[in-house]
């Protein structure tokens, strides 16, 4: 496989990207893998991107502004800006064709935000949510460094107003929920609500095979790092994401 480095100008920032091109493309999908918050960067997603590419799926990873090799300040980033930056990366590296969207932690919300965009929602065939988060709708435009952002997150049950739940319940493609055995970051209520939203329509339509829920024994919230240290588990997650896409 080949690794192609590039930068994408987006949302006033310069974003560092890596495209992993499979040696023998065998699937019509392009996968976009998005890291979480804090110290996360695109390198956390590369092990899974390599597994997808080895199975014939072109994969794209990038650093959000304020992370890794991208420009910008983390405190000025917001959920809305994350979605705009991810869309810009897709416009550059996957302007057409079906998509596989994978989000770790905070990027679970970013996956939902992308699927809500009509031009991307119709192209998305598979979503993968790895230890995903969901955030209050009121927090969408707030910079992460703003006290209002922190106060919103600390308000008990504020996550219930997230648009992620209705978006995932209405999503008609394949969904894979990947959970660690122990998650000290994401409230259990968020995980249960996402699980219910992802499974509701599929079970009602009689198509449970379009939803897979994987629990990784011994894993913690930092699934990207954990998968990078366990090739067999990483391959298992990749296989779940690509099931039925050949």
TrEMBL record:
Q: Name one GO molecular function term.
A: catalytic activity
Q: Which Gene3D superfamilies match?
A: alpha/beta hydrolase (3.40.50.1820)
Q: What Pfam families does this protein's entry cite?
A: Abhydrolase_6 (PF12697)
Read off the InterPro entries from this record. AB_hydrolase_1 (IPR000073), AB_hydrolase_fold (IPR029058)
> Which residue intervals define the domain AB hydrolase-1 in the entry?
32-230
What's the protein name? Answer: AB hydrolase-1 domain-containing protein
Q: Which organism is it from?
A: Kitasatospora phosalacinea
